[in-house]
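haha ok so turns out i had the wrong file open the whole time. this is the CORRECT one, sorry everyone. sequence first:
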Amino acid sequence: MTRSGTDEPVDAPDRDRRHPDESVTVDAGRRLRFVPARIFSSAAHAPRARRPTDWLLLLGSLIGLVLVTFPAPGPTGLDTSLAAFIDSLPGLFGWFWEICYDLLVGWAVILLVLPLVRPGRRRLFVDLLLAGVVVTALAVLAGEVAGTEWTSSLKALFASQPPAVYVEMRVAIAVAVVVTASPHLARPLRFVGRGVVTVGAIAGVALGIALPIGLVAAFLVGFLAASVVHLLLGSPGGRLTPDQVELALSDLDVDVDEIEDAPLQPSGVALMTATTAEGSRVLVKVYGRDAWDGQFLASAWSSLWTKGETPTLGAGRLQQVEHEAFVTLLAERSGVCVMPIITAGIAAEGDALLVSDATARPLATLDAGEVSDDLLTQFWAAAATLHGLGVAHGRVDGYRLVVREDGTAALADFAAAQVAAGHAALMRDRAQLMVSTALVVGTERAVSAAADALGTDGLVEVLPFLQPAVLDRATRHAVREQSWDMGALRKAAADWAGVEQPQLEKLRRVTWRSAVGVVLIGVIAYTLIAMFAGVDVQQLVDELKSADMVWLCLALFMSPTIQVAQAFSTMGASVQAVRFGAVLMLEYAIQFVALAVPSSAARVALEIRFFERFGIAAGGAASIGVVDSVSGFFVQVMLILAITLSGLASLNLGSSGSSSALSSSSSGGGHPVIVVALVLLVLGVIVAVAVPRYRAMIKDAAPRYRAALRNQASEASTALGVLRRPTKVFLMLGGNLVAQTIQAIVLGICLKAFGHEATLAQLILINTFVSLFAGFMPVPGGMGVAEAGYTAGLEAIGVPSAAAMSTAIAFRLVTFYLPPIWGGGAMAWLRRHEYV
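then structure:
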């Protein structure tokens, strides 16, 4: 073994060591040591956990399996084309494909036998057996749903000749075994398994044993079975054992002893403390090679849900270590008191390590009496020097604020630091510092120290950022255990500065009165629609009774994914980084509030309150909603123009409901449902004028927001800066485009439930046109107007009136009337986590 990055051999440690999970002993004093290749990612006794990412894999597999069931069992036109392409590949003969296909079984057998011949691995064998049973049952069930007899599915498991069967059983079992075993195996073996499965699946198509659609289903079923096993039995995280860390450190010429887990364990990385040969304590941060998948998934999950966590999706192990070491050295060179870096690098096995001095006490472990005012001043001075470099620390909490042995204050752990940070990032640092010190010394001393360091103007500048949304999870929970809350700290700071604390946007509450008003509007609207469409109540009831409930349930199941796409659009409209999970809850909460007030007003009010929690002033927060809405309007207009000008679909609104959707001719005469749309438009205006609450809202909204934008022009211009960032624009346009497409698919599923079909272009055109039209209505959610529009649009493509109106009702049920059920839960989540 050689030192990382050199060809020089590494001296062996002074005592004998046994490599974890291996039987090779290294004698002391030997110049070179032999360490067998790592087979397993973790020790046999390593703890297991049920990870949130397993739930994501489960949900994604279920959604994909449901979607692929529609064209199943095949063959589709795409299946035929792909099979012909693979068959035409030059130089690849039948024997080659046969070997690749047989490797599927061979690799699965190897993975099954491996735990039996390794000590302490019998539990993995049980996992793999369970995965095989679960995937077989799921594959047979999926085949039955698609029309494949269960006997045919089981026969295909032992057959190596055509015909192709949906689902491809061998691939499904191989995928389940490989994915189930992956967290237990070293990274090279994971890649081998993935390669074998991929090539074997292609070989199945080349041999005519499988269709592409059957392979897609097989992969989804395999993922589903593996996620079920991981959720039932847990999986290891690929963390190195203390002995493995000691060996890795020796590759970096660091001799340590007494290695143990550190009290603080952030996601995606292992922290350990150790004692050097000189007797000093060091902190070892380990990015394990075999924990790479866990690091990526943990980072992805934290970037979606966790406040205060910085995503590292694009950085490898070495890049993360280099980033932290670089920022730490940059800060130290500029005079910031830090915990010095001892060494950093890649060990021979590929694990990245960063070793820093650990001879300090975290601020969170000290009592108020141990923290002097001079120490608080030093913390603020360190932060000021760091910010003078344009660097934001990112995690200024009680464990990153430390007191060294000589009694001086220092900053530790620059893993989340941002170089060339923006103003908001620097303000978040200051807010976190004020909260972290207040947790130890109380609000009065914390505010006093902040005022002395920042001055009155600087303290006022931080006030909007004293919100729970800028804190990490641990700090937020620590605040909840105090006798004071963030509001009290913000008030204390405002009182010290002699200013009024910033007022948050008032939210409009959903009341029983508003709900009853919505019901009355709905009854009137549906009565008018049925009357003008020529559909009596009994006919409508009969049509609804005849609906296929499986398709309606599928539509309801897909409905929440619309807000997932809209969440990305909102993230794109925000110039400040926000977490996907919180924004998704915001989108669901808007569905809840939209029952009481028009959706545009609900969105604006709720988004302003939401973004104010991140320190964005009302003007900038309002601009975010405006930018998001305008981008949605732009996408809708572009969709309508693209579809109509390309001739993919058109709406013959002058027809009686039996004409072709693709006909561009007009039969003359007005359509009855067009009349009802106009009547409902007039009705909406009357309601808006007659109801005092709506009238006052419309009268006051425009001047209020115009004044806010005028008075806070700088914040608004900052928010509009997203239009100069291609990534943000892509998120806005892409999110709105995907949302419109998913809505059209849900509309098509509802139409399918009543025995009719339409092309995707037709559905997108109908949905986009109606969404655009109903969005201007001063009625909650465009109630009545949207139903009339969908009915008219569906009739225009040849759907009978009763089925068109039933489809419109079902579609609105799953996308507007039922979402407030989980929207109420989302609103409660936002309030519980103090986002609104």
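The CA atoms of residues 140 and 150 lie 6 Å apart.
again sry for the mixup
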